[in-house]
Amino acid sequence: MTTTTSVMRSEIAQQPEALRTTLDALLPMAGEIERLARETRQVLFIARGSSDNAAVYGSYLVQAHGGRLTTLASPSIATTYHAKMDLSGVLAVAISQSGRTEEIVDTMRWAAECGARTVGITNGAGSPLTEAADVALVTRAGNELAVPATKTYTTQLAALAVLALGLGADLDAGRLRGVPDTIEEVLAQPTDRLDAIVERLIGVKGAVISGRGMAFSTALEAALKLKEACYLHAMGLSYADLLHGPIAVVDRDTPAILVAANSGPTLPGTVALAERVAAAGAPAYGIGGGAALAGACDLAVPMPDVPEWLAPISLIVPAQLITEQLARRLGYNPDAPRGLGKVTQTS
């Protein structure tokens, strides 16, 4: 197996420090978010790509723990249809790694013109997104050179956790500060199970990645990583949606990768799905889920015990490592997937 170190692998290792610096900068801003949010009742998330997967985490977090209705925006309503609507009482949260994706900035400006208050989450200090937002949560991931988002994604999740705290979520900020230590623990684990999953993914053309609730964002982001860096036909699905028909594609040549926190209300369903996949003769690989999910899967990567609401920030790390290693084993450059750039402009 090649031992070449990619930029992506180096940036995966930088995540604990990026998260510490980000949390140090953003946690003191929870009060500022709280003051802005007093004028609002619900949240509209505006994002694309990995940032949109982060928004899914934010949506579950704010609804489950903050008691506010959330919606994922359709930016084309603003940029293509130029629709006008009443967004008074709405907090529009735009998420963009660079802060320079015109569609996202334009959609946030449109939301403000429609009466929304605005928050921008970005790694781009001084970017158009920060200049246009009422409050800017600027992550401290540093310069990210590899095209697949790693440290910018996990710092976005941390920013969304701070957002939830500012919106009144009854969560422990002290546990959030412990996430960098958790990721260091994940990175220090033996890699035998992760290596074995990579070996079994060589030669497959597609995979289904599934989780539910807080972990749904991880399934979506893991699938995106495998698509963009390994060119797999990877589908990220809630297990509830998977059972409504797409499970038919899971077979011995199309494995399922299942992600879950070690505890929480969605774990039993994830375990049941693993058992169903195994009964169909298809490979099932787990990330997290404790002993229950490991016992139902062919192979599973163990994860430290953290509260379900924090688990997605660390659950994505094994998926990042699998993606980087699999891309190299397939002869691809994970730092520069074909046809992709660091900033994607859409209209």
Structure explained in plain terms:
The N and C termini lie far apart (42 Å). The chain has a 5-stranded parallel β-sheet, sandwiched between helices. Strands 7-6-8-9-10 form a 5-stranded parallel β-sheet, with helices on both faces. The chain is an alpha/beta fold and 347 residues long.
Topology:
Elements: H1 7-13, H2 15-26, H3 30-37, E1 42-46, H4 49-66, E2 70-72, H5 76-79, E3 90-96, H6 102-113, E4 117-122, H7 128-132, E5 135-138, H8 151-166, H9 173-177, H10 179-188, H11 192-201, E6 206-211, H12 216-230, E7 233-238, H13 239-242, E8 256-260, H14 267-279, E9 284-288, H15 290-296, E10 299-301, H16 311-329
Helix pairs in contact: 2-8, 2-10, 3-8, 4-8, 4-12, 8-16, 10-16, 11-16, 12-16
Give a quick summary of the entry.
With 347 residues, the protein is of the alpha/beta class. Helix content is 48%, strand content 14%.
